[in-house]
Design brief:
Blueprint lengths: L3 E10 L2 E9 L13 E5 L1 H14 L1 H4 L3 E5 L5 H7 L5 E5 L1 H11 L3 E3 L6 E2 L3 E3 L14 E5 L2 H13 L4 E2 L12 E3 L5 E5 L4 H4 L5 E4 L1 H6 L10 E2 L10 E5 L6 H10 L2 H11 L4 E2 L2
Parallel strand pairs: 3-4, 3-5, 9-12, 9-13
Antiparallel strand pairs: 1-2, 5-15, 6-15, 7-16, 8-13, 8-14, 10-11
Length: about 280
């Protein structure tokens, strides 16, 4: 049975995390019990949907007992792994994980199976149909976490809207904008809030999973979107260091990069999510 948990409270203060979760479904054993089911944290779309496909269609035949817990933020899936609330997670890319580990003193690592998929970041607007039509002084919202904020600014820079200082890399912030000919105003919001705030903004740079949840397609609705080729932002299965060789993790990693999952991604998301294997 699928076990789905949604985040209600996530407070990180003075190095201590307070979690409030509401869960439905059965909870068979401890997440840290290596003889029990493999409990995996994921954001709902597309990661939760991909895991749900694996659970319903592939896991039983592979001898894998899989439980999925969904979270709607980008912090709790990692802290839950670190604290043993879940055994693995599937929601993030390497630049984000590197930054998270550095800032929080965690030791979470990618499972060595490679990336599973890419969700192209896109610029969306309800007021203009072309990025170049943004008015002088327009407000553009971007994700407020370090790596996705830099990623959003790079997307705008790659499309000629702004120029960034040289060498800022994955740590770019609005302070690193070297040229801003349209005098854009940047509003930093939690990634999950961006689709809900789109109507109050001139444009927003939205992560692919949250765009999909809001029925926005990077392939069809974005003014511009990231290219898949050479993109470092593919998502992967991750665990606490030392758990990479757990037999259940290895089984899930193999299933997530199977031809069946690739076909599922291609058929369901029509370019809004791209298989990376």
């Amino acid at each position: 049975m699928r076990n789905t948990a949604k985040i209600t409270t996530a407070v990180l203060a003075a190095g201590a995390l307070t979690l409030g979760l509401t869960a439905c479904g059965s909870d068979k054993g401890s997440a840290g019990d290596k003889d029990g089911p493999l409990v995996v944290a994921a954001t709902p779309t597309p990661q939760g949907e991909i895991l749900d496909f694996v659970q319903k269609n592939l896991a039983k035949k592979a001898g894998l007992d899989l439980e999925v817990r969904e979270f709607t933020d980008y912090v709790t899936p990692n802290t839950a792994v670190q604290q043993g609330e879940v055994f693995a997670n599937y929601f993030q890319h390497k630049p984000y994980l590197d930054d998270f580990n550095k800032k929080n003193g965690t030791d979470i690592v990618p499972v060595p199976s490679g990336t599973v998929h890419l969700e192209p970041l896109g610029v969306y607007s309800k007021s203009v149909k072309k990025l170049g039509d943004l008015k002088d002084g327009a407000t553009v919202a971007i994700p407020n976490d370090t790596t996705n904020e830099a990623r959003a600014l790079k997307l705008l820079a790659d499309n000629g809207v702004i120029e960034l200082k040289k060498g800022v890399g994955y740590a770019a912030t609005p302070k690193d904008v070297a040229k801003n000919p349209k005098n854009l105003k940047f509003k930093e919001l939690e990634a999950a809030q961006l689709p809900r705030s789109l109507g109050d903004l001139d444009a927003a740079v939205i992560n692919g999973n949250y765009a999909l949840e809001a029925d926005l397609s990077p392939a069809k609705n974005a003014l511009v979107a990231e290219k898949a080729k050479g993109n470092p932002y593919g998502n992967f299965l991750a665990v606490k260091k030392g758990d990479e060789k757990d037999p259940r993790v290895k089984k899930l990693a193999k299933l997530l990069t199977s031809p069946e999952v690739k076909k599922f991604i291609d058929d369901k998301y029509d370019g809004a999510v791209v298989a990376a294997f």
